[in-house]
Amino acid sequence: MTQMDSSEIRDVMDLYGFATDTRRWDLFDRVFSKNLHADYGGEAAWTDLEQFKNDFEAFHAVLDSSNHLMANCISDIKGDKAACVTYGHWVLVRSGMRDGDKWFGYGWYDDELSRESEGWRITRRKLRMISWEGNSNILNPAGDVPDDSFKVPIDVTSLYAESEAGTIPLLKSIDGD
Questions:
Q1: How far apart are CA 105 and CA 60, in angstroms?
Q2: What is the mean pLDDT of residues 153-172?
Q3: If exposure means fewest CB atoms within 10 Å of the residue's CB, which of 92, 94, 150, 168 is most exposed?
Q4: Among the listed residues 58, 68, 63, 66, the one whose alpha carbon sits nearest the alpha carbon of residue 88
Q5: pLDDT, tens digit, for every residue of 96-105?
Q6: How many CB atoms lie within 10 A of CB 73?
């Protein structure tokens, strides 16, 4: 593992947040592999980068703004492969919603990356949430709906529970599994 590789992987993680918040979906080509497998919870899963970009564009189109803070980026690099965990805090804003204009999410991205000819790219991503607060109807494409008729489509867990279950690729990589 070189310091340069770690820095380049960190740049990929930061670019994801920036691309999302600026809605520059073309920048996802510098973040994700064309052979992407992304799981954001529930039915939100993709194996096609173009569909992923299209769906993100449609989802974010109804928002007034978003802010993705990418923090604590820890990676283990072995040759042209890497496992990485990056903490995330997200704010989604949708003005005029009956129960509030903001939704806050807290969790981490569990990523596997490959060094491709253009640089490091995420090949596998699983978003894991530890908690959320605010108006979950902001996540609903239909907007305001009667209370309790829309449920946040993301399960919550803890980093500790996932560690104990042995499901974190970064820890498997560090432990040599």
A1: 15
A2: 90
A3: 150
A4: 68
A5: 998 899 999 9
A6: 20
Tell me the C-alpha distance between 151 and 2, whole Å: 43
- Structure tokens given for 19: 């691309």
CA distance 142 to 94: 12
pLDDT in tens, 135-146: 988 988 777 766
Alpha-carbon distance 82 to 118, whole Å? 15
Task: Please say if the pLDDT value at position 177 is more than 80.
Answer: no
Instruction: Using alpha carbons, list the distances in angstroms from residue 79 to 1, 2, 114.
Output: 7, 10, 9
Residues forming beta bridges with residue 136, ordered by sequence position? none
Lookup: tokens for 94: 């949708």
At 173, list the tokens: 């990589």
